Amino acid sequence: MAEERMRVAVLGGGSFGTALASIAADNGAEVRQWLRDPALTEQINREHINGRYLPDYAINPAVVASTEMAEVLPGAGLVLVAIPSKAFGDVVRQARPHLTPDQILVSTTKGIQEEGFKLMSQILEEETGFPHIGVISGPNLASEVADKQLTATVIASDDPETRTRVQTALGCDYFRVYASNDRFGVELGGALKNIYAIAAGMAAALGMGENTRSMLMTRALAEMSRFAVSQGANPMTFLGLAGVGDLIVTCSSRLSRNYRVGYALGEGKSLDEAVDALGQVAEGVNTVRLVRDKARAEGIYMPLAEGLYQVLFRGVPAKEMARLLMLGEQSSDVEFVLAREDVQRAHREQEGATQGAKGGGHG
Ligand SMILES: NC(=O)C1=CN([C@@H]2O[C@H](COP(=O)(O)OP(=O)(O)OC[C@H]3O[C@@H](n4cnc5c(N)ncnc54)[C@H](OP(=O)(O)O)[C@@H]3O)[C@@H](O)[C@H]2O)C=CC1
Ligand SMILES: O=C(CO)COP(=O)(O)O
User: Fold this and answer.
1) Closest ligand to 67 CA?
2) Cβ distance 320 to 307 under 8 Å?
3) What is the ipTM of this complex?
4) Which positions does UniProt annotate for substrate binding (predicted)?
């Protein structure tokens, strides 16, 4: 007997949702995509193009778009939610009456909800109470995925069925899907790296060199993992695709929207001008504010996030902030090898010895 075709539902008609819908269809699934824009829905169904978000790429004709959740969700084995963090909760609440507990619900969104500092999979879990919840994250620029450039991602879930089903639905000869059980770390990695992509874009616009970019990315990794570990994530996750992998691509590519916002700021545009010119979501703008506030409230050392916050929201010139950051604490390289506190203690002891020697000289 022929195996039944998998049904996949995608919520969101943006660039990443569309790219993933097309992969699932390439893999033979029956794919339905929900979006709120009727004109774009019609264009996807008739021309197999998403002219607003991915105009240069053909979508697999097996993807059927609809503005009705009731036509998209019932019967889908896998539901991918690709909606920016600001609207994610609202859309999940609209979807809720059409969902059932056997479905696998996966967020693709790299952002944080302000209310309760919630990650998207936590919203999926809370709004549905269902057991098969996961997150996709990794170095996945949507237009490169749509272009079938060789790419890898991570499916993170503590539920083995979720991991396996997503690997089967999306894994193919141009898209590899690695598994993780650290859902929180993978999801946090995706959200946090957006902050540093803005900083990297800014540094590039200011004419800073490759040494600077490398320093920025590596110290960003230290800062991201410090924050994530303070919140309960596994630091090893940050060595993977959803940590260092995504940091590399987003801090290096003008295809990244966060990088482009940073670049525009470095060219002297205001935050509003930079965001308006982009016309799409750059999650890092909101994330930097939320993370900086949380870091301050919990006493977590995050000089890069604090510096970027000062530039974005307090009008400090980016060049001046870079100068101040270079005068900051010279801390441990890898804190999981040499603790930051040990470096600080050694400095204090040396300072004490120097003061003592000076005092002795006067006595
Ligand atoms: N693009 C990328 O390269 C990647 C993106 N991601 C993540 O995926 C998430 C989604 O991204 P992406 O597809 O790129 O986003 P886009 O900005 O390309 O598109 C956003 C989509 O969400 C829809 N949307 C926004 N607000 C609402 C709402 N209130 N109700 C219904 N629909 C809404 C938009 O509809 P409308 O057009 O009608 O406004 C649009 O279809 C992002 O948070 C991002 O972090 C992850 C990996 C790669
Ligand atoms: O997350 C991404 C690539 O992995 C996309 O980054 P942007 O949201 O900055 O475009």
Assistant:
1) 1
2) no
3) 0.98
4) 110, 257-258
Q: Tell me, what's the pLDDT at 356?
A: 84
Architecture per CATH, 7-181: 3-Layer(aba) Sandwich (3.40)
Q: Which atom of ligand 2 is nearest to the CA of 16?
A: 5
Over residues 182-204, the pLDDT tens digits come to: 999 999 999 999 999 999 999 99
The rounded Å distance from CA 341 to ligand 1 centre is 41
Q: 277 CA distance to ligand 2 centroid (A)?
A: 17
Q: Take residue 352 and report the two structure tokens written for it.
A: 């004490």
Report pLDDT for 2. Answer: 52
Does 17 carry a binding-site annotation?
A: yes
Q: Which residues line ligand 2 (CB under 6 A)?
A: 110, 139-141, 194, 197, 246, 249-250, 256-258, 283
Provide DSSP, 34-74.
Answer: E-S-HHHHHHHHHHSEETTTEEEEEPPTTEEEES-HHHHST
CATH topology of domain 191-344: N-(1-d-carboxylethyl)-l-norvaline Dehydrogenase; domain 2 (1.10.1040)
What residues act catalytically? 193
d(CA 242, CA 157): 13
How many Å lie between the centroid of ligand 1 and the Cα of residue 92?
14
pTM exceeding the 0.90 threshold for the entire prediction: yes
Cα–Cα distance for residue pair 16/146, rounded to 1 Å: 8
Atom 29 of ligand 1, residue of closest alpha carbon: 87
- List, by residue range, all CATH 3.40.50.720 domains of the chain: 7-181
